[in-house]
Amino acid sequence: MVCTKTSLFVLSATDNNSLLGPTDNAALNSGVLDVPRSGSFSLAIYHASFGGEIHINQELTVSFCDYFVKRGKECYENRSSDAVSYNVRNATMEDSGQFVIKILLNQHWERFHLHILIRGIPTVHMNSYNILKNFPNTNLQCKGYAYPIPNITFSYTPCNPSAMNHSNTLDKRHCGESIILPQHLGRLSPFNYTTIFEVIVPSWAIETGPGIVSCKATNSEGTASTETFLYVRNFPDPMAFSVISPTDVVLYDDTVHMLCQVDVYNFTNQFTIHHGGSSFKLVGQRHHFAWTVTFLVHINNASQNEVSCAALRKNGTLLVNTLKLLIKYPSKPHVISMNNTVNTTIAYGDQHRLECDIDGTPTPDIVWFKNDDHLRDKYGHIIRISLEPDELRATYKCLGRNRLGTSEKTWNIV
């Protein structure tokens, strides 16, 4: 009801089944039209004769009937000297919305917000979850449409990972007993006069393992449920193919230790390795949520730099991943300048630059010493030094080391 000094406007639900009432906060100048599941309702604005305008819009430019007609529903508007009325047929819960009644009176717009909420059986949706096992927990989410506000129940069913796949088919004989999650764990989005809802169970522990997560929504109109897979993975991609050792660089005549892994959900434990024109088959071992194989390949020449791992999917197809190894010639650490010992003089208070020109393949690790004491705060090939006030001389040394050997360079400071 909108009152002015000279006029009275009355908003009314004119069908027998809809219920019109105020919102919880009367100060918002708004109301709620509760529509039965049939989706058919009528409303009218009654008024005395006046020279102004009356509009109901869903948005700034979308009229009341245009909103429903664009959604494939029936809507009829009728205007007379003392009323504006609307009849809507066969709307659904998803057609619910917020509308603004605008009345232009004496060059001033009066506004009233009307929430039209259409009752219906809940609809629910959940995405599948792909969680890395090193994450301690995740948020379970269920969302959809419902009015009245639904009661949400989550359940979790642990399953054997090797019986799960992305075809969304699962023989539940490979699953355990379902666990109903305590309802206080779920956080339902606040009701703001919309049919959209979202429920989150925060910090669900991943240690429970893979399985099925279900969401059931119930209100006075009925019940709906959905379920989705929760996949716990060792790694994000279907396959992980890597070099275990050497950890620095691959050299000619190296024996390379390699690891190939695929997830247990989509793959069998059958692998084929291709290298240097030959192939061999391996049977993977289960490690958490992956099938894994480790193997050795020997590098004799540049033509052997490619190694391929082929894994057999449950649907009979293959996934092949190829690693191209960067192979280098081995080189023991050595001093490039060919001068392993340097004598130099530093004046007190001056700084001096020392460069450790030791090279090799793999790249040597450099360690610095002063008077045979390890300088743990000095690293890299270049450092700066100065003599302490009471020092007359010092000996600095850098040591370069890789898996092929060591080399050193010494500076005698006087």
From TrEMBL:
The lineage of its organism: Eukaryota, Metazoa, Ecdysozoa, Arthropoda, Hexapoda. Pfam families: I-set (PF07679). It is a single-pass type I membrane protein. This is Ig-like domain-containing protein. Its main location: membrane. InterPro entries: Cell_adhesion_signaling, Ig-like_dom, Ig-like_dom_sf, Ig-like_fold, Ig_I-set. GO terms for molecular function: cell adhesion molecule binding. It is found in: Membrane. The keyword Disulfide bond applies. GO terms for biological process: cell-cell adhesion.
